[in-house]
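User: Can you recover a sequence for this backbone? Please restate the input before giving your answer.

Assistant: Of course. Working from this structure:
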């Protein structure tokens, strides 16, 4: 008979970050949930290729300049490395990954399959319009599309 007293439910937690202090508010909650289970963590930063405001006379959209793309990826990696160091100081196993993808939701969901993620933990900005007044659009799409548990945290906002 299996020992049901303890099972590592969440072995690998994916934490998408957008580089803002707001997105980092999920860290405390993800750690509180995963640390007792000795979970590993992957910090993910998705960089969207810039889309042109207008098209050149040729009619083809302009792609993100290669040098600028590399600079953005290097900045994103440096950011994730600094966050990872803070978590590693708490004796946590942390990996980082930067992905260039035009659709952040798709990139997040693809990483869950590639890395065998058990839980997605993300902060929601709640800035997506009336239908998404309480959940951000990327968080909403991840929540609706993920086949694994999703932990969402929305920052407290005081109302008058």
């Amino acid at each position: 008979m299996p020992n049901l007293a303890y099972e590592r439910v969440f072995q690998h937690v994916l934490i998408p970050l957008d580089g803002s202090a707001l997105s980092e508010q999920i860290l405390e909650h993800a750690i509180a949930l995963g640390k007792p289970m000795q979970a590993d963590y992957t910090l993910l930063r998705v960089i969207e290729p810039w889309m042109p405001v207008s098209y050149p006379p040729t009619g083809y959209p302009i792609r993100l300049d290669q040098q600028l793309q590399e600079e953005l990826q290097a900045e994103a990696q440096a950011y994730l490395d600094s966050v990872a160091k803070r978590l590693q100081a708490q004796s946590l196993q942390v990996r980082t990954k930067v992905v260039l993808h035009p659709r952040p939701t798709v990139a997040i969901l693809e990483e869950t399959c590639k890395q065998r993620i058990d839980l997605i933990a993300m902060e929601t900005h709640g800035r997506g319009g009336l239908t998404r007044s309480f959940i951000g659009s990327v968080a909403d799409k991840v929540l609706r599309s993920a086949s694994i548990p999703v932990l969402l945290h929305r920052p407290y906002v005081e109302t008058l």
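That completes the design. The chain has one domain: 12-48+62-153.
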